[in-house]
Give the backbone structure.
Amino acid sequence: MTTDPGNVPSPAAPDFGQGIKKEVAEVKFLIHDLRVEGFFNDILHYHVTLNTDLEIYNIEQAQVLHGADVQELKAKLGAARRGFQDYSNAVKSFSPDQTVLLLARRYVDAIHETCHLILSPLWGRSDQVLSFLPKEARSVKSRRHYRNCISWLYGVHLRIAAFNEEANDAAVHVEFDIAEDLRDFTQDVVRGYVVEKSEARVELQLERMDPAVIVGRRQRFRRMYFNLVMNAVDAMSGRKAGAVHVSTVVEGGHVAMHVRDDGVGMSPEKIRHILSDRQTLDGEIHSLGFVFVRQTVAELGGELAIESTIGKGTTMTLRLPYLKDKVLQPDPAYQKKYRLPEKYRSLPMEPDTARVLPGNATMPIAVAAAAPPQEDPASGGADGERACGKLLFEAYQKSRAQFPGCIFAMAITEDNRVEMFTHKPYEREWNISHEDLSPMYYQATYRGRMEEDELKRPIVILKPPQSVQEYFDFKEVPEVGRDLDRFTRMVRDEGIRIAHKLISTGLDPQIQVLLSGAPRFFPSSPDLHGTKPFPLELLALQRLSAEAG
């Protein structure tokens, strides 16, 4: 079932009155967007685990000091939970606006204070304490996830500060480049949320990003964008792999911002519902995201359109006015104030180096002849230098996680040489991402996971390169020869070569595969599309561009 309402403008959204009615609506929108509860719980769990590790390994003095820190955190989190309960009860019981506003502000202040405590370099001292623990300690292994939570809470801290500033000057409007702002905010906040929320099953891909200067409340625009991404990720919650595609395209007097997902899609009735007016927010805590999006689009003088296909995904399109021929220089003051500092970004880990299996090692599954391309004689035949397929399956078999699997990144040159191969098995209580595995190239290479499906059989989830620019840089393509058609062609051909290489080096050609972004790179091969897996051999049998030409 396909829904394509065309350019459906967002209706004139009510402003929920002025004065206190407006203030209540704004703080409700903020609370809805903060999404801190799960991150707070994970922070507490990490510090309790760390304190237990200190006890297990008899590091008594550090345990005493850290134990006091944990108690302080518990007190802050307790105050925040009580604050939310009081606010929630007031909203659901239709308390007077003054009461709701007071309790909402009190809850936001509690969140802000808790974030301030966690981010303080004088509290927790986990980096120093971890140096006393062996690498097999649970808290050491879960450090990356902890750092991602810290990054998220730093973003929350900034958003509350920006909200308070705007509340004191609600009419503040600034000029900013939409493409630059999306890139910065995605890098600092949104991509980390997508990785953690989807357990790295969903990719966030910035595609064509036309620069265009728009005018409005910059922090409110960022929160609107975040709402659109959150909804897209939620739409793919039941899928093994998916992608959120973001782009900005200048079209005449407007810049069109597209947010597209590979999710469940929406019916015409649901589209009409989310585009319809809501006369009041009284009694509402949830389902505020689209109301906020509509309000923000209207404030920016734009229109909101939705196109959706049931079972295949949804595209949200915002058409916003922009200042023609206006070019802005980067604002160092703003960057310093609102960009995420380097120390709060995700902590990379050393990638696993490729290992060659012993000569007598065997795969427990049959390897069929898969008609691989001609091997480079210097590579030792079927890639004797790097037995990628065998190594990948070995890592999957050796995984000690509750749900076994492994992660990998791979690149193949046009002359069929392994340009890069790195992998690591899932480990207990170790949440690892491709950024950790290959921090310099994770957006420029094919990435993948091997996991179990519902029947406990291995399945490969393969994801194409994410960044056009980084891919061309990695492949050393001259600037003059770079365009989207070439990117699509190169990525398509590399995917076919990777399938050949995995099969020729020991991976079963019948192993099932899910390929993210298949409709873009293989538009004429519907068997590779969608949520139904296909044999790896099917990808290997696709014709290269030179052959098809």
